[in-house]
Structure formats: C-alpha cells, structure tokens
Amino acid sequence: MIIRIFLLLVCLYSLPYAAISQGSSKISGYVKDSGGPVSDASVLIKGTTQGTVTDEKGYFEINVPKAAKITLVVSYTGYQSQEITVNATQHAKLEFLLVKDGGQLKDVQVIAVNKAKEVKASGFSVNVVETKQFANTTADINQVLNLTTGVRVREQGGLGSNFNFSINGLSGKQVRFFLDGIPMESFGGGMSLNNIPVNLAERIEVYKGVVPIELGSDALGGAVNVITDQQTKKFLDASLSYGSFNTSRAAVSGRLTDNRTGLVFNVSGYHNYSDNNYLMRNNPKNDAAIKVVENNQFVYKDMRRFHDAYRSSMGQVEVGLNNKSWADKISLGFTYSNLYNELQTGASQNNVYGAAYQKGNFYMTSLKYKKTDFLLKDLTANIAANVSIDRSDVVDTSSYVYGWAGIIRSETIAGELRDVKTLTHWKNVAAIARTNFTYKINDNQNLNLSYTFNRLTRSSKEELRPKEQNPFYQPNYFTKNVVGLAYQHNSFASRFTNTLFAKYFGLNILAREVVFVTQQEPYRRRDTTSHKGYWGYGLASRYKLTENAGVKLSIEHAYRLQEQEEFFGDGISVAANIKLQPEESDNINLGAYYAHQPGKHRFSAEAGIFYRNVKNLIFSTPGGRFSTYSNVGIARVTGLEGELGYRYNKLLDFTVNASYQNAINNREINPLTGMEDPVYGDRIPNQPWFFGNARLGVGQDNLIGKNTRLQLNYSVNYIHWFYISWESLGSRESKNKIPAQLIHNVSLSYSLKNGRYNISVESFNITNELAYDNFRLQKPGRSVFFKLRYFIK
Amino acid sequence: MFQKNKILIFAITAVLFGFTACKKDKADTEDETEPPVEKTYGFLVTTGTPAATYVVQTGSVTEGTLTTVNNGIATTLSVFTSRDGYYYAIDYSSPSLVKFTSDNKTTNIIAETPFTQIQMAGWSGFFTWKDSKTLVMLNLNNNRFEYAELNVESMSITRSGDINIPAPAVAEDYYWGCNAVFVGSKLYIAYLKQIKANDELPEKAYVASMDYPNVTDVTISSDDRFNYPSPYGLFTQSNLVYNGSAYFITSPTFWAIGNIGAPNGIFRVLDGGTQIDDSYFYELTDPDKEETIGLYDLGNGKAIVKVLDKTRLAAYADYSAVNTASYYAVDFINKSKTRIDIPVSRSGAYQWNVLIDDGKAYIATNAGDGYYVYEYDPATSTVKKGLKLEGVDNVGRIYRIK
Q1: Residue in A680, A476, A675, A651 with CA at minimum distance from that of residue A563
Q2: Rounded CA separation B137/B23 (Å)
Q3: Closest Cα of chain A to B389: distance in Å?
Q4: Residue-level pLDDT at A114
C-alpha cells in the first residue's frame, strides 16, 4: 500500500513538472575555481533577495523575469565575488571562474554566503547540519543531531519512543523545538524530532544556551530549529524504506512554482511504522535482568518486545504566491498528522505494559507572509501564524498485569500507567503568531523586533472518573507572550559583529484547579489566574580574524517559564505551588572556528567552552499527601567541545568531535529542609558527561556508470559511562551506572542520473552492542534498512 | 463505588516515601540476663533531589554519626519489614518478594519470589507476622479482602485467597483496610467502611476476627464510638498485643480524611475474643486541636504515640515542613499520657520512626537542625540525644537488624 502511494505521488508530481513556464527565462551555469566545481556558492540577482546556491557540481539554475537585463552576483567565502550582466530573454548558460581573495580581506565584497555557513559564522554558539548529506539514510532528525557536538538524545526504545534532548547539559523542558521558527510545543506526538524524516529538512540549527530573538520562546538550555527548503523553486524528493522490526518509512516533499503567476504549491508528508519488536537481552551485569515467571519461579532469559507498535503519519499542503508587490511570499497551508503508539515499558524495562497505548490526530492551518521594504524601505516583515487542534487519547484500561512472558494476573483497580484505570481524551487548541521585523539602518546596523504569541487551551474528558475530579473538564488557558528586540552592529569592515538583545517573557495562566479538601467537601473547584513577566537579555559577538577564522562570544540571561501543571498541580497527586518561579540561567559560550582549503583539501576546526549557572531548577518534591513542584535546584555546568573536519574534494569526508560537560549541584542548603545539602558539589547524576562521534564518508562519482555515485558512510558514537544516582551518596560498590556504549553505523548508497535515483542499505548498531541511554531501558540491537529515493529539482 | 481517587493519592504518596513496616520491635521480648551482643540497626532514609531511598546501617543508635555519604545502598525496592537479620521488600515492577541483607556496601539478595497472588499496593496493603517464620500479607481489592502467607525461610507462598468478609451491602460504599494483628492464632483485621450516602464519611470502625488459617469463619464486630482505625498498614505501627488482648489506635488525620472531628484514641478486643470491648476507649486528645499517629509497644501496658498539633497544619506540605510532632508515653491501661521531652519536630508523611529495643524507645526526629535519634527510657522517664543522621531528608523506618 505504501509503495502504491509512493508511486502515485511520484507520477502525479512528475506530470506538472514537465511543463515549462512561459513567463520567465531560465539562466543556468557553473561556478568553478582552479580546483573544480564550487558548491554552495551564492548566485543573486543584484538588487534583490532572489537567488540560489550552487549544487555539488557547481551548477545553478535561476528563473528570472523575461523583462530585461539583469546582473548576477556570484560570491563565496574566501573568493572574490563576480558580477555579470545578461539578457534575460535568452536561456543563458554561464560559467564563472572564482578567484581566491588571497587573504586580501579588505578587497573582498562578501555579498552572501551559503546560509548554513552564514549561521555558523554568527556570534551564536550553534550547530548547523545540512541534511543533504543524510538524505539517502533512514535517519530521523534526532539521529542526525545525535552526531553533533554538545547534543545528546537519549531514547527510551525504538522508532517513536520517548526521548530526552540535551544541549550542553540542559535538557527536557529546558530545550525548545521549532519548525521553520514556529514553536513545536503544541504540534502533537505525530510531529516530533523522533519521527520527522531527515529528507523533509534542509538544515537544522541547534542553538546552545543563547538563542536569537526570532525564536520567540523560553529556551533555557537552547533551541533546535528545523528548517525546510524555502528557496528551491521546483523539486521532488520521495523515498521509501523498509527494514528490521517490520519498520517502514515513506517520505515525500516537493514544490512547484509557476513563475508567471507566482503561484507556489508545496506538498510534504511522511508515514512511519514499526513493530519495534526487538530483542530484550537479559543483562544482570548491569542490573537489567529480564525476568520471566515459569513454574512460579523466576527464569532469566532474552525476550522479544510484544506491545510496542508505533505509527505516525503527516501530510502537509501549502499554496502560496511569490514575488508580488505586496508580498515576497505569502502562503496558506494545512497540516494533518496522526499517531498510534503502543506502550511497552514504564520508566524501567521491569515495568512491562501489555495493553496501554496512546493515539492522536493533529490538524493545523498556517499562514506565512514575508515582505521586504514593508511599509518602509529596508524594513523586512516575516509573519507566521497557525491555529491547531490536537486530539489525543491515553488508554490505560488493562484488566491485567503484564510481564515479559505476557499476562501475570488480573487487576481490577490499577491501570498500567497509573494506579487507577484511566481513559483520557485530551484536546489541545493552540494559536501561535510570530512576527519578526528587521530594519536595516545602514550596511552596518540592523534592528530586529520579534513578537511571539503562543496560546494553548487544554481540556480533557476522563471517562472513568467523575468530572468534578478532573481539573481539565473545562478548558485551561496558557498564554506566552515573548517580545524580543535585537540590535546588530558590524564594524571593522564587518569583521566584528555584535548583536545585543533583550527579551520579555509574559505568562498568563487560567487554571481550573481541583483541590481535595476534606471528606465532607471532597473536591473544591477553583479558577486561578496568574500573570507573570520576566526580562532576559544577552549578547552575541563574532570577530573574524581572517575570512576563514574567527572567535565568538555569546551570553544570555535565559528563562524557562513554569508550566501549567507545575503551577497548579493536576488535582490528583500534584498540589499547586503558586510561589513557583521560572528556572533561570546565565549562559556563556566562547568559541573559535577555523578553516583552511589548500587545493582540493579542506581542513576545518571548531572549538568552544561554555558555562551555565542555573537557578530555581524545578523538581517534583514530596510534601505529604500531594507532591508539589518547587524551585529547589541550583546547578553549574561547565564544559568544552570541539570538532575537526577534513575533506578531500568529493572523495573523502571525515569529521570527529567530542564533548565534555561537568554539571554539578551548586546548592549548599536544601531549601525544603533548611539543612546542608550532602551532595553539594556532586556531578548531576543520570546525565552523560563525556561523549563523541566520528564520521567517515568515502564516495566516488562515475565508478559504476556515467552520472552515478557510490558512497560509503560510517559513523561511530561513544558515550562514557555515568552514574544514575548521586555520586557521593551510598556506597560506591552499590551504585548503578549506565555502561559506556560504542555504536557503529554503516550505510552504502548508490545514486544514478546525478542523484535522481538512489538506493541505499544501512545498518545501525552493526556490532549489536547492548546499549542503554537510560537505566533499565534497553535500546534496539542491530538493525538493517533498505531505502529507495527519487529526487529531482 | 470504589474510591479510586483516594487510592491514587495513597499510592503516589506511598511511592514517594517508600514502603516501610515491621513488627520487629514488638516481636522481640529480650531476656534481660543475656550478655550484651553486637547490635546492628538499619535505617530506611530518603535524601537527595530528586529523592532516592537508601538503606544505611549502624552499630549504635545512642551515639555517633550515621551518614549516607559514601555509605549505604540506594534501593528501588519497597522495603516494608525486617526480622531476624533480613529485610523483606516488594519489587512492584516484577512483581516479586525480595529477602535481602545489607552491609552498607552491597545488597545480598537471599531470595526473590514471584508475587502475583495479591496486589498489596501501598494504598491497599498491610501485613502482620504470625510467627518468626510466617509473614501474612493482606490486601483490600475492590471491597474484597485477600491474603497471602509467606514462609520466610523457603520464601514461598504457602497460602493465599480471599477472606470471608462480605462486601458492603450498598454497592457505592467501600471498605478501607487498615491494619492486622495476631493474638496467638487469632487474626484480627481492623477496617472501616465509608458511606456514600453520608458524604463518604465512615460511620463506625470494624474488627474482623478469625481463627487463622480458617479465613472463611469470620466474626465481625463494629463500634460507632469511633470510626477511623489507623489506615497506614504498611507505614506505621498501629496496634499491639498486651496480656492476650489486641489494642488498636484510631487516626482520623487531616491528612487522610480531612478535619472530621472523629476521636483519636485506643480501643481493644479482650482476651482473644471476637468483639470490640464496649467498656473501653481511651480518647487521647481533643480532635479539633491534635491528631495521633502510631502505637508503639513499650511493654507493661505502655506505648509511644506521636501527637501532631493540628492547628499548625494548614496544608499537606506542612506535615514535612512544620514542627508539629510531639511524642507521648501512653499508659493505655490507666489512661494517662506523659509528653516525652524531645523538641517538637516535623512529622514526615509516612514514618515508622520509633523503635522499641530492650525496653527503651528510640525516636528519630528532625526539629529543623537535622535528624537525631533520641533514647527514651520509660523506667526513668529520661531522654538522651543520641545518633546523628547526616545527609538525610526523611527517616522512613528504623529496624533492629541484629
């Protein structure tokens, strides 16, 4: 069925692609230097923002109005830019030969560089991953980011499993996710970093500790922004994979642009399915035994997972207009996603579930608008808004208790997830509006104003409990207003760039609190509102020592706002704490980068050190009958990370990176007990603190036929062992730890017709390492996947 | 209709505090002529943020310091009793019963037995020792009382099934199982029934008695002078046996049921009989001002009772944060009580923090300056400040291990 859908999409999309637009001309050509093709060079129509970048062969195509002569500006970091004026009525084919600037920086006019390189060269501490190098793999975005510096994604299981994303030692709610700058908090489980195929993204930016104001959210530890291709006018990327654990993944994305009318059609979607029935291996050595009851005795043996199927689907269509006098771009889109997720284990693989599951449907309409010279010359407006409904059910009605061998006994009261059976229908309605205005004061000064409105209305119906006990029986509201203002100043011929910014976080909550009072008055409903405001601020600076080397400094006083449940409890087991403050942190990054490109060789190096001083960390704390969330944590994180790269033309690409982070408990007195904290100065437990990755790619063009490429990729991922509980509490002999893991992944891909047709085979964890990201939550063993991909642009 | 919400509240709180229970202290009646032996005491404590439970041991509770720093064993097991040198715990995730010892460095698991006969969850389970080899675990499952008998030597379940206590006649009413005790072979189960038509308030207390192991022939006695036998079966000692009679405490705490004004006191079943003694009830305090938790057998007709100043408990969190707890030596025969001279301290939510050993009481309390063990000698009514506990946020249990 998936194959048929896939072929249908390919056929449908290929038909209009054959049509040639009549209202414009196409100019194409190659950009080279003395060593051969130059990829990622910028080709711009002078005086506009319209342009493109060259591909791996240095090739570009650009559609231009038939009207008149235009001037193309070709530029690339480290090279002198070139301009050429052509007559657009001809289908011109051009060739540019770029000349290195020879270090004469003052003579170089850098008009535009590849966006990824531009972001990397900003003052922010950021990983930028261009996903085209992973396009033939079956990886999702989490797996790709897991290979980058400072990032650890700890997964609880196989495809679609829960994950914890950590950036430089801060994780969970302290990291925020964005899709094209839109906060993903309300996107539902069907759209997440653990299921979005890498093909759907053009690049991914990971901001560490200090986050630009455009991403308007309370990101204490950092932010991940997944960016889809917004530039290519026509393309189709469709893929299908199948492999271990009955896992299939299909993805399609494409765009069709009519130059005459400016109409743009976007389509994208994916479908993931897996049984996730991988083998759970008995591992008493790491206190992770798999116990099965046979003849009323425990038997220790390997068992296969049996209730972990996962399915997620997403479809998105978007219709837009480009290049109108009133809008550079405007589009209206609709997104639907669907989720079905069986739950196999609780917080430990000893808690086996056999019936609980969750499912959901997500609907979203979105509007995007972009305009340069908006109202004023040099004022650019970038506005996006969406409204979404996320309906999800959590079904925990099992009549049985399960173990790895199946049913253990019947159970009349408790569910598997909670201590009573529950069947909860959640409804989240979210409205998000993000506006960003950039005003270019002059060539060296920019002003940027950003405002994000994020309102979530959350309600639920619990079928197995009286509505009086359900705080979400009537909608609860949660509104964040985030305003950011940034001033950027360039000096010393743009070698020294400073961005000063301030952010305001406004928080409004209306909660329908349910309080258990007395037996005579068991449940008191109480509507509580809260209005809070906090100021954050920061700086991002970069100084270019040479065109290919620079140093960076970024600083932010950041916040992570309190969440609704943390404030008001859940009416069942969590009590309100209206004194709760947001988590706050002073974050500092200092980094340097360097690149050197003699001939066909390219060496690169990046290194950074970071500091986080986090206060008011929120933990759930016991307090009698109810637990409450309290500001009881203080932590200090210091660390360093670095990456080295070497590339030889298109033949060989090697990268190695390592990250070390020392997160310690910086709390001397426990505010709850008033006593000295016995673990003051201890490393924060249950958190990786040393890890690294290496990647090697070897590829050759035209090895097996003309216009083909054979590519072999290998990656290895190492995580040092770490304790799961406080280092200085309890005897050393009794401490459990997550063992070190060394995971090897290999992929081989073969591309025909210049990458139009691709076939690949890939194996994750090829040595079948017994790996755990979390205590007693084993990850999948070796898996093998095949992938077919069709790509044209 | 079973009160699921209440169950849930208890369950979650139970998880937070760990399960602790034991009758060790009343099982031992030491011969005073025995020579001094090397002693071992075990503490079940919580510490750290997020909180974790540790088992730590020491040779003395009258002096010195016991710390969790580089000492003791973190455990995810729900330890609920100890006897003759062994800890007994439930591993709810398996589920299994675990018998183990500790030496402050490692856990030595003696036996692990699948435990599927009854649930014995934190909110619905309780237990009692029949003798030094027989641990009887009980559970209230949807108005059905069930039990499982464990032979702790073979670590095998030797009996299990339902106890013949009829379900409430009104389907919406529900039982709350409280605590159990053996007098010889007579098993007593104290419980209450919450009445839906009466705003879910309990109207009276019940005691079911049976000649164990005959759990089908059950006699039920009730008394409406009080209505709330202490329901913390896994977490607090709530009964004792004196001169062949069973004594039970009532604990209608704000924390459990709200401020309903029900009496806090001690009732009994005389001489292995089947009826609550309607001539006896010792009301310990004014229920509008104070509430009582725990009944620890000092011997000679005396017991230790923890009394909380209810006027200082404005919120549930105050149980752990505000100094409200005083300890009294109670003469439940002559109906008198004497406040023990230790600082008013925090109560904690689930604390079996009193150990009776060699006729003396050892009470672990925290008045805001950290945990100390106070020794109370009933013979002289004197108090000594003893062992200091460092790196401890809450003491869940004290055991005499050896």
Answers
A1: A476
A2: 13
A3: 11
A4: 66
Residue where the block lists tokens 């104003």: A449
Q: List the one residue out of A558, A113, A292 whose CA is nearest residue B112.
A: A292
Q: Both tokens of residue B68? A: 């969790």
Q: Are A45 and A36 in contact (CB under 8 A)?
A: no
What's chain A's length in residues? 793
Nearest to A414 among B112, B121, B316 (CB): B121
Gap between the Cα atoms of A153 and B280, Å rounded: 64
Buried b (16+ CB within 10 A) or exposed e, B164-178: ebeeeeeeebbbbbb
CB contact under 8 A, A625 and B17: no
Q: How close A452 gets to chain B, by Cα (Å)?
A: 33
- Chain A positions touching B393 (Cβ under 8 A) are 670, 672-673, 675
> What residues of B are in contact with residue A296 (Cβ under 8 Å)?
114
- Helical residues (DSSP H) of A456-563, grouped into ranges: none
- A598 Cβ contact partners less than 8 Å away, ≥ 6 residues apart: none
* pTM confidence score: 0.83
Tell how strand B302-309 and strand B323-331 pair up.
antiparallel
Q: Give the pairing type, strands A445-462 and A476-491.
A: antiparallel
Q: Which of residues 59-78 of B touch A (CB under 8 A)?
A: 67-74
Question: Nearest CA to A437 among A497, A371, A498, A490?
Answer: A371
Residue B160 contacts A where some CB pair is shorter than 8 Å? no
CA distance A357 to A572: 21
* Chain B residues lying within 8 Å of A570, measured CB to CB: none
pLDDT digits (tens, 9 = 90+) for A677-713: 888 999 988 889 999 999 999 999 999 889 999 999 9
- Ranges of H-type helices in A62-207: 115-120, 141-145
Average pLDDT over residues A465-481: 82
pLDDT at residue A315 tops 80: yes
Verify whether the Cβ–Cβ distance B5 to A572 is below 8 Å.
yes
CA atoms of A131 and A119, how far apart (whole Å): 15
Residue B316 in contact with partner chain A when CB distance is under 8 A: yes
| Strands B65-67 vs B382-390: parallel, antiparallel or unpaired | parallel
Nearest to B400 by CA among B36, B39, B89: B39
Q: For strand A222-227 and strand A175-179, is the pairing parallel, antiparallel, or unpaired?
A: parallel
Q: What is the pLDDT of residue A66?
A: 61
Looking at beta carbons, which pairs linking B108-112 to residues 24 or more positions away fall under 8 Å? B110/B86, B110/B155, B111/B155, B112/A298, B112/B155
Contacts of B376 (CB under 8 A, 6+ apart): B304, B327, B329, B340, B342, B360, B361, B362, B363, B382, B383
Which of A42-46, A305-309, A545-549 has the weakest average pLDDT? Answer: A42-46
| Per-residue pLDDT band at B60 (split at 50, 70, 90) | very high
CA distance B292 to B92: 30
Chain A residues touching residue B49 (CB < 8 angstroms): 619, 621, 632-633, 667, 670, 677
CA A607 – CA A643 distance, rounded (Å) = 6
Report the alpha-carbon distance of residue B280 to residue B223 in Å, rounded. 11
CA-CA distance, A233 to B74, in Å (whole number)? Answer: 60
**End-to-end CA separation in angstroms for chain B:** 45
Could you give the CA distance from residue A621 to residue B46 in angstroms, rounded to a whole number? 12
Instruction: Copy the structure tokens of residue A246.
Output: 């009955």
- Residues A76-104 have pLDDT tens digits of 766 777 777 776 655 556 777 776 654 33
Residue B383 CB-half CA count within 13 A: 15
- The answer to whether the CB of B339 falls within 8 A of the CB of B356 is no
Q: Tell if the CB–CB gap between B316 and A672 is shorter than 8 Å.
A: no
For the stretch B74-94, what's the b/e string if a residue is b when 16 or more beta carbons lie within 10 angstroms of its beta carbon? bbbbbbbbbbeebbbbbbbbb
- Which helix (H) or strand (E) covers residue B282, if one does? strand B282-285
